[in-house]
């Protein structure tokens, strides 16, 4: 640049020889790095268009076009600088992970608090976390509550609250007051350290699309030389040949593709997806087969209570309270789910005594003076009609059963199952739209629940009772047919992840076997992040190819014009600089993502979605009450059945119907703009009308029953149809809203947290 400017000043002053000398010096200086780039490419077994740069610089010196040579020199330096700046910009989100890594921690020993390097933090150390601190290690909150910003790991902007005893991950930010943390892992073994290791590997590696660019360059180089030679022969002037080489240098093909790939990596990191390399991003962009593990990937990976069945003389809430009181003493995953459900229903738990646990059978304890057992029963001991009904319902729902016995007599059963992830159906639809034409599920579970999940999600193939070796064989078979992505979350999934074209680990938890074996890690447990990553991959690949093709086309047009003698070398150098800038700026569009896949939500609308989603969780208890009322009516149209129906109607009028009316008048109008149509919620509005109609019909039956001092025989059939119909309709309606609308929000509510 200095040589070009100095030559320009000398030319303006009339010292043309001095100007030529300055420009020639600048050209000579530029030849040195250009030759080094050619040598470096040859060492990698690649001959690219840097050779054209050397030939054009040399040519300008030989034909005396010193100004053109200086312009090419500036163009080469500017192009490399722009490429580096674009790469830095595209990589800044990846680098942010590295820069945020904490280096020190406040450790409390007794009453003394000291600052120590995080490498010295050991398991069970007590750490003091101040407001704004990045948690240095994984641990558990010791007391009080911690308000955390997990956006760096999950991409979610909503703060979460963790109470005493809850596990927290390193790398999140303390967005609340001071709290203490008991370390459960060293810094090296913690979540953030694992993610940082992945981020260090992420970058614009030599992805297949870039290698494709090199193959294009292999054709472009001889074409450029051929056109230059033809121009020389046809016009009899070496200047024309130099002009052709000038506009062919440097090829934007090799600048734009890496920038687009790195931009895609950066974009993915913002959404909570760590991609190890550009090769993985490009492969994801052209994948057509998706293989998924079931537990923890398509399902939540943790059981939840779906129903509580009580003996005829018992109340379901009391059965759940007794069961949860005993299960407080058990670390079993089913016990944790029962306790969580009881707390979510605001039940007051008793403190059990003399607790014992028998592996495979359950836990026993004394509660309120009675010996209570929660766990399994031998099938032959289940003889009562209500118990057989509960067992049959569990089989139909593919649920596990925890029997509740008081003084050795069964009084109820708690039904639990691993629920489908709320985003799963919508994510499957998005993945098919993104290019997957074959969706396969692998699971070690029984065929019945596996088929049920596959039916709901519309999967193409299901393999049940799969061992880790079976999963690897299945993935290899799919990989041999097409580019295959495998998604899993457990240690047993690691071999299958490594066998796939692209392995994706769900919900990074530090240096687990699955995340280490994966090419892509979703740092949050949201399945829809996989669809986001797929959209980003295809958009980045499309931009990379588009930029390369546009750049080559523009260069070929300019080369043709130069070969005809209509474009002198100096003007050609300026034109080529403009082409380079254009394609690099176009490649940076990959940072913004595909606008067609975005659903922009106003902050108020997103908050509203969160509120209604939380209400859905609270209303599930009301849905169970409606079914319980119908079951009571089947047993007999007596006073107990009437009271049960009255409770259901009270829940309808006081909770469910106001909730539905608020959705109709507040939520649906707010969704019309982001969904670009009022028709998107029209079918849900029709369902609201049907819910209101059935509720009114139940109310009419109750007024008749109250006047006649009981439910009349001619009311039973219609009342049963209304209750069972309303229960099924509400369940379906809730699921539809959660899949279609609530998944648009940044995070899911968890009232059991």
Automatic annotation (TrEMBL):
<dbReference type="Pfam" id="PF00122">
    <property type="entry name" value="E1-E2_ATPase"/>
</dbReference>
<dbReference type="InterPro" id="IPR001757">
    <property type="entry name" value="P_typ_ATPase"/>
</dbReference>
<dbReference type="InterPro" id="IPR044492">
    <property type="entry name" value="P_typ_ATPase_HD_dom"/>
</dbReference>
<dbReference type="InterPro" id="IPR023214">
    <property type="entry name" value="HAD_sf"/>
</dbReference>
<dbReference type="InterPro" id="IPR036412">
    <property type="entry name" value="HAD-like_sf"/>
</dbReference>
<feature type="transmembrane region" description="Helical">
    <location>
        <begin position="543"/>
        <end position="567"/>
    </location>
</feature>
<feature type="domain" description="Hemerythrin-like">
    <location>
        <begin position="609"/>
        <end position="744"/>
    </location>
</feature>
<dbReference type="GO" id="GO:0015086">
    <property type="term" value="F:cadmium ion transmembrane transporter activity"/>
</dbReference>
<keyword id="KW-1133">Transmembrane helix</keyword>
<dbReference type="InterPro" id="IPR008250">
    <property type="entry name" value="ATPase_P-typ_transduc_dom_A_sf"/>
</dbReference>
<dbReference type="Pfam" id="PF01814">
    <property type="entry name" value="Hemerythrin"/>
</dbReference>
<dbReference type="GO" id="GO:0005524">
    <property type="term" value="F:ATP binding"/>
</dbReference>
<comment type="similarity">
    <text>Belongs to the cation transport ATPase (P-type) (TC 3.A.3) family. Type IB subfamily.</text>
</comment>
<dbReference type="InterPro" id="IPR023298">
    <property type="entry name" value="ATPase_P-typ_TM_dom_sf"/>
</dbReference>
<keyword id="KW-0067">ATP-binding</keyword>
<feature type="transmembrane region" description="Helical">
    <location>
        <begin position="216"/>
        <end position="235"/>
    </location>
</feature>
<dbReference type="GO" id="GO:0019829">
    <property type="term" value="F:ATPase-coupled monoatomic cation transmembrane transporter activity"/>
</dbReference>
<feature type="domain" description="P-type ATPase A">
    <location>
        <begin position="101"/>
        <end position="199"/>
    </location>
</feature>
<feature type="transmembrane region" description="Helical">
    <location>
        <begin position="241"/>
        <end position="262"/>
    </location>
</feature>
<dbReference type="InterPro" id="IPR018303">
    <property type="entry name" value="ATPase_P-typ_P_site"/>
</dbReference>
<keyword id="KW-1278">Translocase</keyword>
<dbReference type="GO" id="GO:0016887">
    <property type="term" value="F:ATP hydrolysis activity"/>
</dbReference>
<dbReference type="InterPro" id="IPR051014">
    <property type="entry name" value="Cation_Transport_ATPase_IB"/>
</dbReference>
<feature type="transmembrane region" description="Helical">
    <location>
        <begin position="51"/>
        <end position="79"/>
    </location>
</feature>
<dbReference type="GO" id="GO:0046872">
    <property type="term" value="F:metal ion binding"/>
</dbReference>
<dbReference type="InterPro" id="IPR059000">
    <property type="entry name" value="ATPase_P-type_domA"/>
</dbReference>
<dbReference type="GO" id="GO:0005886">
    <property type="term" value="C:plasma membrane"/>
</dbReference>
<dbReference type="InterPro" id="IPR023299">
    <property type="entry name" value="ATPase_P-typ_cyto_dom_N"/>
</dbReference>
<dbReference type="InterPro" id="IPR027256">
    <property type="entry name" value="P-typ_ATPase_IB"/>
</dbReference>
<keyword id="KW-0479">Metal-binding</keyword>
<keyword id="KW-0472">Membrane</keyword>
<dbReference type="Pfam" id="PF00702">
    <property type="entry name" value="Hydrolase"/>
</dbReference>
<keyword id="KW-0175">Coiled coil</keyword>
<protein>
    <submittedName>
        <fullName>ATPase P</fullName>
    </submittedName>
</protein>
<keyword id="KW-0812">Transmembrane</keyword>
<keyword id="KW-0547">Nucleotide-binding</keyword>
<feature type="coiled-coil region">
    <location>
        <begin position="602"/>
        <end position="629"/>
    </location>
</feature>
<dbReference type="InterPro" id="IPR012312">
    <property type="entry name" value="Hemerythrin-like"/>
</dbReference>
<keyword id="KW-1003">Cell membrane</keyword>
């Amino acid at each position: 640049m200095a040589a070009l400017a100095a030559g320009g000043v000398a030319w303006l002053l009339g010292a043309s020889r001095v100007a030529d000398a300055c420009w020639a010096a600048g050209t000579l200086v530029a030849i040195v790095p250009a030759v080094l780039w050619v040598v470096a490419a040859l060492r990698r077994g690649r001959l690219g268009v840097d050779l054209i740069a050397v030939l054009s610089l040399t040519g300008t010196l030989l034909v005396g076009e010193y100004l053109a040579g200086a312009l090419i020199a500036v163009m080469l330096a500017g192009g490399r600088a722009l490429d580096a700046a674009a790469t830095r910009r595209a990589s800044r989100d990846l680098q942010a992970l590295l820069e945020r890594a904490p280096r020190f921690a406040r450790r409390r020993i007794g009453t003394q608090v000291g600052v120590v390097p995080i490498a010295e933090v050991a398991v069970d150390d007590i750490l003091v976390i101040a407001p704004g601190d990045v948690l240095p290690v994984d641990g558990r909150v010791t007391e009080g509550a911690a308000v955390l910003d997990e956006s760096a790991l999950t991409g979610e902007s909503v703060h979460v609250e963790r109470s005493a005893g809850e596990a927290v991950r390193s790398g999140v930010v303390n967005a609340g007051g001071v709290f203490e943390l008991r370390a459960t892992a060293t810094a090296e073994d913690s979540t953030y350290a694992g993610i940082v290791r992945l981020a260090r590997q992420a970058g614009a590696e030599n992805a297949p699309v870039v290698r494709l660019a090199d193959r294009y360059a292999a054709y472009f180089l001889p074409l450029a030389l051929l056109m230059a030679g033809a121009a020389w022969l046809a016009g009899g002037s070496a200047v024309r040949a130099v002009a052709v080489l000038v506009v062919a240098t440097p090829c934007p093909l090799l600048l734009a593709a890496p920038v687009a790939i790195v931009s895609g990596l950066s974009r993915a990191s913002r959404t909570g997806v760590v991609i190890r390399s550009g090769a993985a991003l490009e492969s994801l962009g052209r994948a057509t087969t998706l293989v998924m593990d079931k537990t923890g990937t398509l399902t939540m990976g943790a059981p939840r209570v779906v129903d509580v069945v009580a003996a005829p003389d018992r109340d379901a809430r009391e059965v759940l309270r007794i069961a949860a009181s005993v299960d407080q003493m058990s670390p079993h995953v089913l016990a944790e789910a029962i306790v969580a459900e009881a707390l979510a229903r605001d039940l007051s738990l008793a403190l059990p005594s003399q607790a014992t646990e028998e592996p495979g059978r359950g836990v026993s304890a004394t509660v309120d003076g009675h010996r209570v057992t929660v766990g399994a029963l031998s099938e032959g001991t289940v003889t009562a009609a209500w118990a057989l009904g509960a067992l049959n319902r569990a089989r139909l729902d593919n649920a596990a059963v925890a029997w509740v016995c008081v003084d050795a007599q069964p009084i109820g059963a708690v039904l639990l199952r691993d629920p489908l992830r709320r985003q799963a159906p919508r994510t499957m639809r998005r993945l098919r739209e993104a290019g997957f034409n074959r969706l396969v599920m692998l699971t070690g579970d029984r065929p019945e629940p596996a088929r049920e999940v596959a039916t709901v999600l519309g999967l193409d193939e299901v393999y049940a009772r799969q061992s880790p070796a079976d999963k690897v064989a299945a993935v290899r078979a799919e990989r041999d047919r097409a580019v295959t992505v495998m998604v899993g979350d457990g240690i047993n999934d690691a071999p299958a992840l490594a066998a796939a074209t692209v392995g994706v680990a769900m919900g990074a938890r530090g240096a687990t076997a699955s995340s280490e074996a994966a090419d892509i890690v979703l740092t949050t447990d949201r399945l829809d992040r996989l669809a986001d990553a797929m959209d980003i991959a295809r958009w980045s690949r499309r931009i990379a190819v588009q930029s390369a093709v546009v750049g080559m086309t523009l260069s070929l047009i300019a080369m043709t014009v130069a070969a005809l003698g209509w474009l002198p070398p100096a003007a050609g150098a300026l034109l080529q600089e403009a082409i380079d800038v254009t394609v690099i700026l176009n490649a940076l569009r990959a940072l913004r993502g595909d606008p067609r896949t975005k659903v922009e939500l106003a902050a108020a609308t997103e908050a509203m979605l969160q509120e209604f989603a939380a209400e859905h969780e609270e209303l599930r208890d009301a849905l169970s009450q409606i079914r319980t009322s119908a079951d009571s009516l089947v047993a007999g149209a007596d006073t107990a059945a009437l009271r049960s129906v009255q409770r259901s109607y009270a829940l309808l009028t006081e909770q469910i119907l106001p909730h539905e009316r608020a959705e109709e008048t507040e939520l649906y109008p707010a969704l019309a703009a982001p969904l670009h149509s009022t028709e998107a919620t029209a079918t849900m509005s029709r369902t609201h009308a049907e819910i209101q109609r059935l509720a009114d019909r139940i109310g009419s039956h109750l007024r008749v029953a109250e006047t006649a001092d009981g439910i009349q025989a001619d009311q039973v059939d219609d009342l049963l149809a209304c209750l069972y119909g309303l229960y099924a309709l509400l369940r379906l309606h809730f699921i539809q809203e959660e899949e279609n609308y609530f998944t648009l929000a940044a995070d899911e509510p968890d009232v059991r947290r």
